[in-house]
Design a protein that fits this description.
This protein is mainly β. The protein is built from no helices and 14 strands.
């Protein structure tokens, strides 16, 4: 099925901190996933990843910021990967937030930046231990910089994923058509079943 990963739209003024929760829907029978997220570093400065509420034993076991390569975050791209340490598929409720992207707005008024899933540097892949056919479907967000009396003053804003994001795009065999086991870590993918290590530094 089509598993949807969504990033909401957001807006703010220069100096504000914004949080964009990444949510999923139709997330069923998933044993592993990987993707990249890209944005414009001239508009948004990456701060951190938070909100790993679904990292319990029956959900995304051990899913945390350690599953991401943040080496290129200053250039506007990060890569994430998770595979089940229990070698079993899991499901999450529609609308579940699996992590949150936090940025500081550094762009000038009128600027915009997409915050989008991509295949650079790491391809979008979904796999199932039970060989269930899966496709990566994405809804990307856009952050718009506005003017206002708080320009240059740091504030924290959290956006909801509901109703946000650009029209969906489907990515299946276009990025990769892989079945478990995943390719070796040297290609920015993980084949371990005891918990994913950090992605390779050159991803």
């Amino acid at each position: 099925g089509d598993v949807t990963f969504s990033i909401p739209d957001g807006s703010g003024v220069q100096g504000e901190t914004i949080a964009l929760p990444v949510t999923v829907s139709n997330f069923r029978d998933v044993g592993a996933f990987q993707f990249s997220v890209n944005w414009s570093p001239d508009v948004l400065r990456f701060n951190q990843l938070t909100g790993f509420e679904h990292s319990g034993v029956t959900e995304l076991l051990a899913f945390s910021s350690s599953n991401f390569n943040l080496d290129k975050a200053s250039e506007g791209r990060i890569a994430g990967l998770w595979d089940s340490p229990l070698a079993s598929d899991i499901s999450l409720p529609d609308g579940a937030s699996i992590f949150t992207l936090e940025f500081t707005i550094v762009g000038n008024a009128g600027a915009q930046s997409p915050v989008a899933f991509s295949g650079t540097p790491t391809a979008r892949v979904l796999t199932s231990f039970n060989a269930v056919p899966l496709n990566f479907f994405q809804r990307d967000g856009t952050v718009s910089i506005s003017t206002g009396p708080n320009a240059g003053i740091e504030r924290n804003i959290v956006f909801s994923a509901e109703g946000g994001g650009s029209p969906g795009q489907r990515h299946g065999a276009g990025d990769a058509d892989l079945a478990l086991p995943l390719p070796p870590e040297s290609s920015c993918q993980c084949s371990g079943r005891g918990g994913c290590p950090l992605l390779a530094a050159n991803c």
